[in-house]
Please model this.
Amino acid sequence: MSTVDSDQTATPLAESNGHRSYSSIPDLKESKSKKKKRTWLGDFQQQTFHSWRPIYTAQTVSLALFVFGIIFIPVGAYLLVLSERVQEIQIPYEDCSNTLQGEDFNRSCAEVINSTEIALIKSCKCRLAFNVSQEMKGTVYVYYALTNFFQNHRLYLPSRDNSQLKGDWGTVEKPNNPSRECRPYVREDLEEGSNQTEGRIYLPCGAIANSMFSDQINVLYKQPGQTIEVPLNRTGISWKTDQEHKFGNPEWFSETNFSDPEVRKKFAKPPAWRKSLWELDPENPDNNGMNNEDFIVWMRVAALPNFRKLFRILNRYSPERPEFADGMPLGEYTLEIDYAFPVTGFGGTKSIIFTTQSSLGLPNRFLGATVPHRLMMVERLYRLVKLIERRNICG
Amino acid sequence: MASVELLDSGELAGATRHTRSDGKSRIIRLNSQQDEKFAGNRISTAKYSFWSFVPSFLFEQFRRYSNIFFLLIALLQQIPDVSPTGRYTTLVPLIFILAVSALKEIIEDVKRHTADLEINNREVEVLRDSYWQWVKWKSVGVGDFVKVRNETFFPADLILYSSSEPKGLCYIETSNLDGETNLKIRQGLRETSKLLETKDLTSLRGFMECEQPNRLLYEFAGRLKLGPREDLSLGPDQLLLRGAKLQNTTWIFGQVVYTGHETKLMKNSTAAPLKRSTVDKLTNNQILLLFVLLLVVSFISAIFSHIWSNSSEGVNAWYIGLPRIDGTEFAFNMLTFVILYNNLIPISLTVTLEVVRFIQAMFINRDLDMYHKESDTPATARTSNLNEELGQVRYIFSDKTGTLTRNVMEFKGCSVSGVIYGPEQLFVCHTVIPEREDGQLIYHAASPDERALVYGASKLGYVFETRTPDFVLINALGVEVQYEILNVLEFTSTRKRMSVIAKGPDGKIRLFCKGADSVIYERLAERGNPDSTRLTTQSHLEEFATQGLRTLCCAVTEISSQSYKEWLQIFEKASKSIQNREVKLEEAANMIETNLRLIGATAIEDKLQDMVPETIAALLNAGIRVWVLTGDKQETAINIGYSCRLLKQSMELLIINQESLDATRECILGYVNDLGRGDNGQVLSKESDAAVIIDGKTLKYALSCDLRRDFLDLCTNCRAVICCRASPIQKAEIVEYVTQQTGAVTLAIGDGANDVAMIQKAHVGVGISGQEGLQAACASDYAIAQFSYLSKLLFVHGAWNYDRMCKLIFYSFYKNICLYIIELWFAIYSGWSGQIIFERWTIGFYNMFFTSAQPIAMGIFERKCSQEIRMRFPVLYMPAQDSFGLKTFFYWVGNSVLHSIMLFWLTSYLVGDGIVWNSGREGGYLVLGNFVYTYVVVVVSLKAGLETKSWTAFTHLAIWGSVFLWVAFLLAYSQIYKLGLPIGAEIFGIGNMVMSSPVFWVGLFFVPVVTLLPDIIVKAIHGSLFQSLDDQLRESEVNNQDPTEIFNRKKGRLAFAWPPRSCTV
Model:
């Protein structure tokens, strides 16, 4: 593809047309001869630095790319295999129907919860059956996926208070004022232009926290004679760095504190929440409050409006449920959904996804299939160039 | 003048009143308090003082539109909720960039301050309280008597009173002022030269009247009134200028007339007009285009934002908590997007250019090929703004004497027809100073012509021995002859002659005159000059001229003592006048320089400088038009034209010598028609193998308003143009008109004071730092020692720098658009909200750290074709000259938009749902952002490499180093939050997440390769099918092939051009 510039020793050829020969200048001749030692500074100032001078021609370039392409075929094939191996089941459920007896029975849950104020959300439950027709081996990850949900909106994305999330709430007597960034979810009943220090502080504050995904989902596995709940881990779904450095509860935080009327006078749950921060996971104090992993996962905002977030991980090591030790066996499953999160208003969808994992993360056919293809295309370029060259020369 | 004459003896009080009222002259009292307060002798050449630095620096900086723009952006960011990038992300880079500029200014100014301090604290002996006391220069005041010793500089402009030498003579060297290294004589007045004792000076009473300070180095008028009757005239002969040095004289006494910034030296050191390169101007326009693009993109985004907010997606997005819509949000959104996209305008471009230009100028200064060993003169880039302009030159206007020629004169012959008066007149009529050194006479002269004449005469046996103020001693063939010099009527370029009035040993008074033939012939007497003498001399003159020799005519006339006395009165009156002395002296001289009798003519050869013919041939080869503008005779000029290969035998010479406007018009139109121009007034299209020769008188007509166009049309379509007998103003006019009419880049090169105007008018002014002093060099943009260095200056430095600058500027646009337009693509997916996809500080640091080295490396180290190839094939200079057009601009902009599209969407597909680890976790928006950012840094770095034709070690360092710097920064920055600081919360941990994703590493290879694939393919196709000449030469050099083959092969591959010719088999 190139050769290395071999000094400035280009041999001066016979001067036929009277051009001044560069090498006729004595100073340079001197510096050229080996007597005068070349120095770094001299080369710099005289601009005679050693240099590599690549040349791009159809031959060299297509050869190089062809080689890249050849190398990438096995890589691409491997990536494709990885990606093919991944199994995935996606169950959209935003339109599922209410199974609760009552006036709203069999109505679409989306309508049921839409018909009321967010703060007074009605309960709506639905069930969806699905089949695992091919055994899902290994660890199974459960995601919830949303579409048309702009977590990356400029007014939404910064609406959080990192110090509050870290546990800097102040004291019950004198709670810290949440960051302005949390607007419009800083305090209860905060009127535009009203005194900032009035009203109960939202805990957690901000639009991101307020809109946390709130559907409750259980997965049931139908076995002959009985239906068992698939054991799913609620922890291990968030990044360690987040857990350790970005989210935390204050020392004085405990469930009992929040039953204290003094505390309740100062702090309030976000308006869209059905339960308070200390009810996120009452069974596991390490996964409660700001440390709740569902919450941490939600707070790591997605880049694009169609996204999935890790929800649960299949617990293969549950002693009570040895059926799931190798993954999700074949059979009929049911999703039991406590439907609370409205998405249809803005044209969004919700679904639950069960997937095995490749070492690259999620399946990505794009990568394996495209790269070698692209690079091999170059070979055609070479033929094209040759064709044009031949035509030109004959002309 | 009348006013001055009113000042009679004893009217000191009146004089004072008078001076104050009209201010045209300055009154300096001797040994008493001055009436006026004059400027001190402290000088300051520094640009800033301690206190003025901040305001004047900021004022300078914010005269640039781009800085105002970024300041505005920084202010807009302070409006709450408008900025998508926080409040300080523009301010900090802006301050950083201003700080870099400030640092440069401070370093330069500290140098000036140090130099000033040294000068101001030099010491000189000043007469204070009747004693000589050592006083610092800065404390010297107007009216002080100073004593200056040998080999020291004068602290201010002084009037010479007396000296250690007889008759108040002294010798000075003025190389600091005008570059002339020869000694010059100054002489105190007869009346003051006797004041040799301190007490003589302290007892002086009276006053001195002189002009107000001005910048004319060779003019001075004043008078000294020492007693009631004595009214002595002072002229340039008595003036010792600051900057000059006393030589060969033990001491002098002088009185200070002008101090500090009022000295002639300081008055002359005003800054040359600021020139900006064509590339610079175009860049400004392109930045304006980018600004328009910014507004358009912002406007479109704001409209989409409005649409989105009012769609069901936006209205029902309950989770966002959108503020109430009150109608102002469109304007605010617009501001948000302007801030979001503001970096489309490259904030760091100006500072990058400054750095690069500084180093490019250093390359010129340090170039050994442009270093003249004999005179120890390196090339000097006096400005760095025009480095790239050197690569675009289309017209060169060259002076002849001293520029093409050496200005080292050699006496070649003389024609003495008619009465033999003997060549001794040569010895009288000049101002040469002999100096004996090691038994040999060395002649110092202000004019190299005179020196050549005197040397020539001494070869013939007439040796010029001694000069005193009153007489000259000549050894004529062994006999000593003494001529008493009565008056010298000096040479000026308007008079084109000089005369000396001398009394010979026979007691007769004669006027010897020498000068250009035209002026001498005008003044010949009707009688006493037989036609034969005139004609033979005339023919001899032409003969000399065709040999390329410089000619002078000599004439003499006898003056009766009566008429001499009468004339002397007029002359003395004229020489004492303070205003318009020049004109009056000229009039007086005119009166006596009549009735001349022609003696003959002399011929002096001015040899061509080394390599001039080769250089001119190379310049012509490079498609540059070379015009010679000279003051010489037509024949001399044509001859030089042939000998320097500007003219070829095959060329048709279009000579335009006419006496009137109409005749000139007819002549020019005739030639225009001959060259094939139709009557429809179309501009000539074809370059003709002809040369235009025109003389100064005709030029005056040709440059008149109605003829100018046709004349320049004619000239620009001929290969060569020679203007003879052109005055300095005409030279400048030609340059100006050609610049205006053709719009092409012009370069003027000259060495003398008469070239200054032309040098300042041309796009690029080049001064030859040589024989005729430094005035041209001081007014120039580049100073070189030899004309032949021009080829390296243009073909290597100019062509390289132009190529570098074009690439650097376009690349700067490219890299900025490539990263920042991604915000637009992201806007499509973020509800047109103006959210940034990258972390806010990484956006600002992009220009400062991760993509600053690549353009600098390009601007400094890129070498398209080697020096050798460029010097051997000047033809290479031509083709790349138009590479900085709008077409290329849009090509680059399109290229970067394409890259940004590929970078964004390829990465989006790659990242998919954002789950790129086997832990199944999801990364969030900054993972995508930093994937993209990293790939952008890699792609723009590689793009820099792809455009670099010559990779030095520094190029590697810049390209790979920048990528590593970014990766290191990302890893470090994403850990900062851990330290408890309230910064970097969003990017916390992202570095490790990105690096731990296998998809990232696959993409690191895949995304840049696919993104750059079109570029590589275009390069390959270009490199195979549509190679330009320089590409071919470069390739042959890299492959160690004989480059001349390319020219033989020309019919084969070189014939390809875009679009490819259709070919039938």
Summary: Chain A touches chain B through 116 residues (CB under 8 Å).
